[in-house]
Amino acid sequence: MAIDGGIKAIPGALPTFRDASGRSLGAEELTQLKDVIESGSLSFLSGKKTGEFERQFAALYGVEQAVSVSSGTAALHTAVAYLNPEPGDEILVSPITDMGSVIPILAQLAVPVFVDIDPQTQNMDPVKLEAAITPRTKAILVTHIYGNPADMDAIMAIADRHGLFVIEDCAQAHLATYKGRLCGTIGHVGCFSFQQSKHMTTGDGGMVIANDDNRFGRELRQCSDKGWPRKAGGRDHLFLALNYHMTELQAAVGIAQLAKLRGMVDARRQSAFKLTAALEGSGVTPTRILPETTGVFFFYTFRISQESIKVSTADFVKALVAEGIDCFLGYPGKIPLYRYAVVKDARTFGTSGFPYTLPGVENGARFQNPVCPEAEQACLETVCIWWNECFTDTHVEQIAQAIRKVLAAYAA
Ligand SMILES: Cc1ncc(COP(=O)(O)O)c(C=O)c1O
User: Fold this and answer.
1) What residues are in contact with ligand 1 under a 6 Å CB criterion?
2) Could you tell me which residues come within 8 angstroms of residue 67 by beta carbon, excluding any fewer than 6 positions away?
3) Residue 141 confidence (pLDDT) above 90
4) Is 198 designated active site?
5) Which domains does the chain have, with CATH numbers?
6) Phi and psi dihedrals of 181, rounded to 5?
7) Least confident span in 278-282, 304-308, 408-412
8) Which of 34, 48, 138, 198 is catalytic?
9) Contact status, residue 75 vs residue 206, Cβ threshold 8 Å
10) What mean pLDDT is predicted for residues 39-47?
11) DSSP 142-204
Protein backbone atom coordinates (compact mmCIF):
# COMPACT_ATOMS: atom_id res chain seq x y z
CA MET A 1 0.00 0.00 0.00
CA ALA A 2 1.03 3.58 -0.58
CA ILE A 3 0.88 4.22 3.16
CA ASP A 4 3.65 1.61 3.58
CA GLY A 5 5.79 3.14 0.83
CA GLY A 6 4.19 1.29 -2.10
CA ILE A 7 2.90 2.72 -5.38
CA LYS A 8 -0.24 4.87 -5.23
CA ALA A 9 -3.38 3.42 -6.82
CA ILE A 10 -4.14 6.90 -8.17
CA PRO A 11 -0.96 8.22 -9.77
CA GLY A 12 -2.10 11.76 -10.62
CA ALA A 13 -4.12 14.30 -8.67
CA LEU A 14 -7.90 13.90 -8.86
CA PRO A 15 -10.00 16.91 -9.84
CA THR A 16 -10.77 18.94 -6.74
CA PHE A 17 -13.24 21.68 -5.85
CA ARG A 18 -10.27 23.61 -4.44
CA ASP A 19 -9.04 24.73 -7.86
CA ALA A 20 -9.85 24.88 -11.56
CA SER A 21 -9.32 21.13 -11.97
CA GLY A 22 -12.66 20.39 -10.34
CA ARG A 23 -14.72 23.52 -10.91
CA SER A 24 -16.64 24.40 -14.06
CA LEU A 25 -15.62 28.03 -14.05
CA GLY A 26 -14.67 29.69 -17.33
CA ALA A 27 -15.67 31.97 -20.16
CA GLU A 28 -19.32 32.24 -19.12
CA GLU A 29 -18.44 33.50 -15.65
CA LEU A 30 -15.86 35.92 -17.10
CA THR A 31 -18.42 37.38 -19.51
CA GLN A 32 -20.87 37.95 -16.68
CA LEU A 33 -18.19 39.47 -14.47
CA LYS A 34 -17.03 41.77 -17.26
CA ASP A 35 -20.58 43.13 -17.52
CA VAL A 36 -20.55 43.97 -13.85
CA ILE A 37 -17.14 45.62 -13.82
CA GLU A 38 -17.98 47.67 -16.89
CA SER A 39 -21.29 48.74 -15.35
CA GLY A 40 -19.46 50.16 -12.35
CA SER A 41 -22.20 48.80 -10.05
CA LEU A 42 -21.03 46.17 -7.61
CA SER A 43 -24.11 46.40 -5.40
CA PHE A 44 -27.65 45.13 -5.94
CA LEU A 45 -28.87 48.66 -5.23
CA SER A 46 -27.72 49.89 -8.61
CA GLY A 47 -26.78 46.70 -10.49
CA LYS A 48 -28.87 44.17 -12.38
CA LYS A 49 -27.21 40.81 -11.73
CA THR A 50 -28.50 40.04 -8.23
CA GLY A 51 -32.10 40.57 -9.35
CA GLU A 52 -31.53 38.50 -12.46
CA PHE A 53 -29.88 35.68 -10.49
CA GLU A 54 -32.77 35.67 -8.01
CA ARG A 55 -35.38 35.57 -10.80
CA GLN A 56 -33.61 32.69 -12.53
CA PHE A 57 -33.21 30.75 -9.28
CA ALA A 58 -36.87 31.27 -8.39
CA ALA A 59 -37.91 30.13 -11.89
CA LEU A 60 -35.75 27.01 -11.70
CA TYR A 61 -37.29 26.10 -8.35
CA GLY A 62 -40.79 27.22 -9.32
CA VAL A 63 -41.18 29.48 -6.28
CA GLU A 64 -42.43 33.00 -5.83
CA GLN A 65 -39.32 34.47 -4.35
CA ALA A 66 -35.61 33.95 -4.04
CA VAL A 67 -33.48 36.21 -1.85
CA SER A 68 -29.76 36.15 -2.53
CA VAL A 69 -27.45 36.40 0.48
CA SER A 70 -23.77 36.28 1.36
CA SER A 71 -23.51 32.62 2.51
CA GLY A 72 -25.45 29.49 3.36
CA THR A 73 -25.21 30.44 7.03
CA ALA A 74 -26.69 33.85 6.15
CA ALA A 75 -29.49 32.10 4.24
CA LEU A 76 -30.34 29.97 7.27
CA HIS A 77 -30.10 32.96 9.61
CA THR A 78 -32.43 34.89 7.33
CA ALA A 79 -34.91 31.99 7.58
CA VAL A 80 -34.65 31.81 11.38
CA ALA A 81 -34.96 35.60 11.68
CA TYR A 82 -38.06 35.42 9.47
CA LEU A 83 -39.61 32.96 11.96
CA ASN A 84 -38.70 35.43 14.73
CA PRO A 85 -38.61 32.95 17.62
CA GLU A 86 -38.86 34.15 21.21
CA PRO A 87 -35.52 33.90 23.02
CA GLY A 88 -35.32 30.35 24.38
CA ASP A 89 -37.69 28.83 21.82
CA GLU A 90 -36.46 25.51 20.49
CA ILE A 91 -35.52 24.57 16.94
CA LEU A 92 -34.87 20.93 16.06
CA VAL A 93 -31.71 20.25 14.09
CA SER A 94 -29.38 17.38 13.21
CA PRO A 95 -25.98 16.96 14.88
CA ILE A 96 -24.62 15.75 11.52
CA THR A 97 -24.47 18.90 9.42
CA ASP A 98 -22.30 22.01 9.11
CA MET A 99 -22.13 24.40 12.08
CA GLY A 100 -23.69 26.87 9.66
CA SER A 101 -27.02 25.11 10.37
CA VAL A 102 -26.72 25.75 14.11
CA ILE A 103 -25.12 29.20 14.34
CA PRO A 104 -28.24 30.95 12.96
CA ILE A 105 -30.38 29.38 15.71
CA LEU A 106 -27.98 30.52 18.44
CA ALA A 107 -27.54 33.93 16.83
CA GLN A 108 -31.30 34.43 17.05
CA LEU A 109 -31.17 33.38 20.75
CA ALA A 110 -33.16 30.21 20.07
CA VAL A 111 -32.02 26.83 21.39
CA PRO A 112 -30.80 24.21 18.91
CA VAL A 113 -32.23 20.86 19.98
CA PHE A 114 -30.21 18.05 18.45
CA VAL A 115 -32.14 15.08 17.13
CA ASP A 116 -30.27 11.85 16.46
CA ILE A 117 -29.97 10.50 12.93
CA ASP A 118 -31.18 7.43 11.12
CA PRO A 119 -27.90 5.48 10.84
CA GLN A 120 -28.63 4.37 7.28
CA THR A 121 -29.49 7.71 5.67
CA GLN A 122 -27.69 9.91 8.26
CA ASN A 123 -30.61 12.34 8.11
CA MET A 124 -32.70 13.26 11.17
CA ASP A 125 -34.74 10.28 12.38
CA PRO A 126 -38.43 11.31 12.22
CA VAL A 127 -39.37 9.13 15.22
CA LYS A 128 -36.77 10.81 17.41
CA LEU A 129 -37.75 14.16 15.93
CA GLU A 130 -41.31 13.87 17.12
CA ALA A 131 -40.18 12.63 20.54
CA ALA A 132 -38.06 15.80 20.96
CA ILE A 133 -40.97 18.22 20.51
CA THR A 134 -41.95 20.31 23.55
CA PRO A 135 -44.32 23.26 23.97
CA ARG A 136 -41.34 25.53 23.18
CA THR A 137 -40.52 23.91 19.83
CA LYS A 138 -41.10 26.35 16.97
CA ALA A 139 -39.36 24.87 13.95
CA ILE A 140 -37.54 21.99 12.32
CA LEU A 141 -34.34 22.84 10.47
CA VAL A 142 -33.83 19.82 8.25
CA THR A 143 -30.56 19.31 6.39
CA HIS A 144 -30.51 17.03 3.35
CA ILE A 145 -27.15 15.66 4.34
CA TYR A 146 -24.57 14.79 1.68
CA GLY A 147 -27.29 15.62 -0.86
CA ASN A 148 -29.51 12.74 0.36
CA PRO A 149 -33.11 13.93 0.66
CA ALA A 150 -34.48 13.60 4.19
CA ASP A 151 -37.79 11.81 4.79
CA MET A 152 -39.90 14.88 4.02
CA ASP A 153 -43.32 13.17 4.09
CA ALA A 154 -42.72 12.07 7.66
CA ILE A 155 -41.19 15.42 8.65
CA MET A 156 -43.98 17.50 7.11
CA ALA A 157 -46.62 15.29 8.75
CA ILE A 158 -44.97 15.90 12.15
CA ALA A 159 -44.68 19.62 11.43
CA ASP A 160 -48.38 19.79 10.49
CA ARG A 161 -49.43 17.89 13.60
CA HIS A 162 -47.50 20.26 15.86
CA GLY A 163 -47.81 23.50 13.90
CA LEU A 164 -44.06 23.80 13.26
CA PHE A 165 -42.23 25.87 10.67
CA VAL A 166 -39.90 23.86 8.41
CA ILE A 167 -36.61 25.24 7.11
CA GLU A 168 -34.90 23.02 4.54
CA ASP A 169 -31.12 23.25 4.54
CA CYS A 170 -30.20 22.43 0.95
CA ALA A 171 -26.60 23.63 1.21
CA GLN A 172 -25.48 20.19 -0.01
CA ALA A 173 -28.58 19.33 -2.00
CA HIS A 174 -28.93 21.48 -5.11
CA LEU A 175 -31.54 19.94 -7.42
CA ALA A 176 -32.08 16.97 -5.11
CA THR A 177 -35.67 15.73 -5.28
CA TYR A 178 -38.06 13.96 -2.95
CA LYS A 179 -40.96 12.15 -4.65
CA GLY A 180 -40.65 14.38 -7.68
CA ARG A 181 -40.46 17.66 -5.73
CA LEU A 182 -37.31 19.74 -5.48
CA CYS A 183 -35.76 19.81 -2.02
CA GLY A 184 -36.12 23.36 -0.74
CA THR A 185 -39.72 23.67 -1.97
CA ILE A 186 -41.33 21.15 0.39
CA GLY A 187 -40.87 22.94 3.71
CA HIS A 188 -41.77 26.61 4.22
CA VAL A 189 -38.36 28.02 3.33
CA GLY A 190 -35.40 26.50 1.46
CA CYS A 191 -31.79 27.61 2.01
CA PHE A 192 -28.79 27.10 -0.27
CA SER A 193 -25.04 27.67 -0.08
CA PHE A 194 -22.75 28.59 -2.99
CA GLN A 195 -19.55 28.21 -1.00
CA GLN A 196 -16.49 26.97 -2.91
CA SER A 197 -17.17 23.24 -2.45
CA LYS A 198 -20.89 23.25 -3.29
CA HIS A 199 -22.65 21.95 -6.43
CA MET A 200 -22.48 25.46 -7.84
CA THR A 201 -20.26 28.17 -6.43
CA THR A 202 -19.89 31.91 -6.12
CA GLY A 203 -16.96 31.53 -3.70
CA ASP A 204 -19.26 32.28 -0.82
CA GLY A 205 -22.94 33.03 -1.21
CA GLY A 206 -26.41 31.71 -0.55
CA MET A 207 -30.08 31.84 -1.48
CA VAL A 208 -33.34 31.65 0.44
CA ILE A 209 -36.43 30.53 -1.45
CA ALA A 210 -40.07 30.57 -0.40
CA ASN A 211 -43.63 30.92 -1.57
CA ASP A 212 -44.61 32.23 1.80
CA ASP A 213 -43.96 35.80 2.95
CA ASN A 214 -44.85 37.92 5.93
CA ARG A 215 -46.21 34.90 7.83
CA PHE A 216 -44.71 36.20 11.06
CA GLY A 217 -45.20 39.92 10.46
CA ARG A 218 -41.93 40.54 8.65
CA GLU A 219 -40.95 40.09 5.02
CA LEU A 220 -38.31 37.51 4.22
CA ARG A 221 -36.17 39.96 2.26
CA GLN A 222 -36.13 42.44 5.11
CA CYS A 223 -34.58 39.73 7.31
CA SER A 224 -31.32 39.93 5.35
CA ASP A 225 -31.56 43.69 4.75
CA LYS A 226 -31.41 45.42 8.14
CA GLY A 227 -35.17 45.18 8.52
CA TRP A 228 -35.50 47.77 5.78
CA PRO A 229 -38.84 47.98 3.92
CA ARG A 230 -37.26 49.36 0.75
CA LYS A 231 -40.33 48.83 -1.40
CA ALA A 232 -42.13 51.43 0.68
CA GLY A 233 -39.42 53.95 -0.18
CA GLY A 234 -37.50 56.08 2.31
CA ARG A 235 -35.52 54.80 5.24
CA ASP A 236 -36.93 52.75 8.03
CA HIS A 237 -35.73 49.78 10.09
CA LEU A 238 -38.64 47.74 11.32
CA PHE A 239 -36.77 45.17 13.40
CA LEU A 240 -33.31 43.83 14.21
CA ALA A 241 -31.76 42.19 11.15
CA LEU A 242 -28.28 42.00 9.64
CA ASN A 243 -26.97 42.98 6.22
CA TYR A 244 -26.46 39.76 4.26
CA HIS A 245 -26.48 41.19 0.72
CA MET A 246 -24.86 39.23 -2.08
CA THR A 247 -22.66 41.39 -4.31
CA GLU A 248 -23.14 41.82 -8.05
CA LEU A 249 -19.84 40.01 -8.59
CA GLN A 250 -21.10 36.90 -6.81
CA ALA A 251 -24.44 37.10 -8.61
CA ALA A 252 -22.68 37.36 -11.97
CA VAL A 253 -20.81 34.13 -11.30
CA GLY A 254 -24.03 32.65 -9.92
CA ILE A 255 -25.92 33.29 -13.17
CA ALA A 256 -23.25 31.50 -15.19
CA GLN A 257 -23.06 28.66 -12.67
CA LEU A 258 -26.82 28.25 -12.53
CA ALA A 259 -26.90 27.61 -16.28
CA LYS A 260 -24.48 24.71 -15.69
CA LEU A 261 -26.05 23.38 -12.51
CA ARG A 262 -28.11 20.58 -14.07
CA GLY A 263 -25.09 19.25 -15.93
CA MET A 264 -22.82 19.48 -12.88
CA VAL A 265 -25.33 17.68 -10.67
CA ASP A 266 -25.96 14.98 -13.27
CA ALA A 267 -22.22 14.43 -13.66
CA ARG A 268 -21.85 13.93 -9.90
CA ARG A 269 -24.76 11.48 -9.89
CA GLN A 270 -23.57 9.43 -12.85
CA SER A 271 -20.04 9.02 -11.53
CA ALA A 272 -21.35 8.18 -8.05
CA PHE A 273 -23.58 5.43 -9.47
CA LYS A 274 -20.55 4.05 -11.30
CA LEU A 275 -18.59 3.91 -8.06
CA THR A 276 -21.47 2.16 -6.31
CA ALA A 277 -21.56 -0.43 -9.12
CA ALA A 278 -17.78 -0.85 -9.01
CA LEU A 279 -17.87 -1.45 -5.25
CA GLU A 280 -20.69 -3.97 -5.39
CA GLY A 281 -19.82 -6.96 -3.22
CA SER A 282 -16.69 -5.29 -1.78
CA GLY A 283 -18.15 -5.05 1.72
CA VAL A 284 -18.66 -1.28 1.86
CA THR A 285 -22.14 0.08 2.54
CA PRO A 286 -22.93 3.39 0.84
CA THR A 287 -25.17 5.77 2.80
CA ARG A 288 -28.77 4.89 1.99
CA ILE A 289 -30.70 7.12 -0.37
CA LEU A 290 -34.45 6.84 0.16
CA PRO A 291 -36.57 5.40 -2.68
CA GLU A 292 -38.32 7.90 -4.93
CA THR A 293 -35.63 10.49 -4.25
CA THR A 294 -32.75 11.92 -6.24
CA GLY A 295 -29.56 12.15 -4.20
CA VAL A 296 -27.00 14.60 -5.53
CA PHE A 297 -23.75 13.38 -3.91
CA PHE A 298 -22.12 16.33 -2.23
CA PHE A 299 -19.85 13.71 -0.70
CA TYR A 300 -19.80 10.04 -1.59
CA THR A 301 -20.13 8.41 1.82
CA PHE A 302 -19.95 4.82 3.00
CA ARG A 303 -19.29 2.64 6.00
CA ILE A 304 -17.37 -0.60 6.37
CA SER A 305 -18.35 -3.21 8.91
CA GLN A 306 -15.73 -3.27 11.65
CA GLU A 307 -15.63 -7.08 11.45
CA SER A 308 -14.45 -7.00 7.84
CA ILE A 309 -11.24 -5.01 8.47
CA LYS A 310 -8.50 -5.46 11.03
CA VAL A 311 -7.82 -1.73 11.50
CA SER A 312 -10.01 1.17 12.65
CA THR A 313 -11.91 3.14 10.02
CA ALA A 314 -9.60 6.04 10.89
CA ASP A 315 -6.58 4.00 9.78
CA PHE A 316 -8.49 2.78 6.75
CA VAL A 317 -9.10 6.40 5.73
CA LYS A 318 -5.42 7.27 6.21
CA ALA A 319 -4.55 4.48 3.78
CA LEU A 320 -7.13 5.76 1.25
CA VAL A 321 -5.66 9.25 1.45
CA ALA A 322 -2.19 7.80 0.84
CA GLU A 323 -3.54 6.05 -2.27
CA GLY A 324 -4.66 9.45 -3.59
CA ILE A 325 -8.35 9.72 -2.60
CA ASP A 326 -9.46 13.12 -1.24
CA CYS A 327 -11.42 11.80 1.73
CA PHE A 328 -11.75 12.09 5.49
CA LEU A 329 -13.36 10.36 8.44
CA GLY A 330 -16.66 11.56 9.81
CA TYR A 331 -18.80 14.59 9.03
CA PRO A 332 -18.73 17.31 10.22
CA GLY A 333 -15.67 15.80 11.91
CA LYS A 334 -14.88 13.07 14.40
CA ILE A 335 -17.51 14.50 16.77
CA PRO A 336 -21.12 15.65 16.25
CA LEU A 337 -21.87 19.37 16.34
CA TYR A 338 -22.96 19.54 19.97
CA ARG A 339 -19.45 18.66 21.12
CA TYR A 340 -17.88 21.80 19.67
CA ALA A 341 -17.11 24.63 22.11
CA VAL A 342 -19.72 27.04 20.79
CA VAL A 343 -22.46 24.64 21.93
CA LYS A 344 -20.80 22.57 24.66
CA ASP A 345 -19.38 25.58 26.50
CA ALA A 346 -22.02 28.08 25.25
CA ARG A 347 -19.39 30.44 23.86
CA THR A 348 -22.04 32.77 22.59
CA PHE A 349 -22.76 36.20 24.08
CA GLY A 350 -20.07 37.36 26.53
CA THR A 351 -20.12 35.05 29.51
CA SER A 352 -23.91 34.91 29.65
CA GLY A 353 -24.30 31.36 28.37
CA PHE A 354 -27.32 32.57 26.39
CA PRO A 355 -29.55 31.06 25.12
CA TYR A 356 -29.04 28.09 27.45
CA THR A 357 -29.27 30.27 30.58
CA LEU A 358 -32.17 32.45 29.54
CA PRO A 359 -35.14 32.69 31.88
CA GLY A 360 -37.67 30.02 30.92
CA VAL A 361 -35.07 27.66 29.47
CA GLU A 362 -35.27 24.78 31.86
CA ASN A 363 -32.07 22.91 32.59
CA GLY A 364 -30.39 24.36 29.49
CA ALA A 365 -27.23 22.28 29.87
CA ARG A 366 -29.11 19.17 28.72
CA PHE A 367 -29.41 20.75 25.25
CA GLN A 368 -25.64 21.16 25.16
CA ASN A 369 -25.01 17.49 25.90
CA PRO A 370 -27.72 15.52 24.13
CA VAL A 371 -27.69 11.75 23.71
CA CYS A 372 -27.24 10.99 20.00
CA PRO A 373 -25.48 7.60 19.81
CA GLU A 374 -26.10 7.12 16.10
CA ALA A 375 -24.51 10.47 15.30
CA GLU A 376 -21.51 9.65 17.51
CA GLN A 377 -21.04 6.33 15.74
CA ALA A 378 -21.48 7.87 12.28
CA CYS A 379 -18.68 10.34 13.00
CA LEU A 380 -16.35 7.46 13.86
CA GLU A 381 -17.28 5.23 10.93
CA THR A 382 -18.31 7.28 7.91
CA VAL A 383 -15.84 7.58 5.08
CA CYS A 384 -16.52 10.84 3.20
CA ILE A 385 -15.03 11.25 -0.28
CA TRP A 386 -15.10 14.75 -1.73
CA TRP A 387 -17.19 14.08 -4.81
CA ASN A 388 -16.67 16.09 -7.96
CA GLU A 389 -18.43 17.05 -11.17
CA CYS A 390 -15.23 16.59 -13.19
CA PHE A 391 -14.58 12.94 -12.32
CA THR A 392 -14.21 10.80 -15.45
CA ASP A 393 -14.81 7.06 -15.72
CA THR A 394 -11.06 6.59 -15.28
CA HIS A 395 -11.08 8.57 -12.05
CA VAL A 396 -13.97 6.50 -10.74
CA GLU A 397 -12.21 3.25 -11.68
CA GLN A 398 -9.06 4.46 -9.91
CA ILE A 399 -11.04 5.36 -6.79
CA ALA A 400 -12.74 1.95 -6.79
CA GLN A 401 -9.39 0.19 -7.28
CA ALA A 402 -7.85 2.17 -4.42
CA ILE A 403 -10.70 1.23 -2.09
CA ARG A 404 -10.56 -2.44 -3.08
CA LYS A 405 -6.78 -2.46 -2.65
CA VAL A 406 -6.98 -1.09 0.90
CA LEU A 407 -9.88 -3.41 1.76
CA ALA A 408 -7.83 -6.40 0.62
CA ALA A 409 -4.72 -5.30 2.52
CA TYR A 410 -6.64 -4.72 5.75
CA ALA A 411 -9.09 -7.64 5.41
CA ALA A 412 -9.78 -9.22 8.80
C1 LIG B 1 -25.37 21.37 5.29
C2 LIG B 1 -24.79 22.74 5.37
N3 LIG B 1 -25.49 23.70 5.98
C4 LIG B 1 -25.03 24.96 6.05
C5 LIG B 1 -23.82 25.31 5.51
C6 LIG B 1 -23.34 26.72 5.66
O7 LIG B 1 -23.06 27.30 4.42
P8 LIG B 1 -21.91 28.41 4.25
O9 LIG B 1 -20.60 27.73 4.45
O10 LIG B 1 -22.12 28.90 2.87
O11 LIG B 1 -22.18 29.46 5.27
C12 LIG B 1 -23.07 24.36 4.84
C13 LIG B 1 -21.77 24.69 4.22
O14 LIG B 1 -20.75 24.22 4.51
C15 LIG B 1 -23.56 23.03 4.78
O16 LIG B 1 -22.86 22.07 4.17
Assistant:
1) 71-73, 97-98, 100-101, 143, 169, 171-172, 193, 195, 204, 206
2) 54, 78, 207, 208, 209, 220, 221, 224
3) yes
4) yes
5) 27-256 (3.40.640.10)
6) -105, 140
7) 304-308
8) 198
9) yes
10) 98
11) EE-GGGPPP-HHHHHHHHHHHT-EEEEE-TT-TT-EETTEETTSSSSEEEEE-BTTSSS--BS
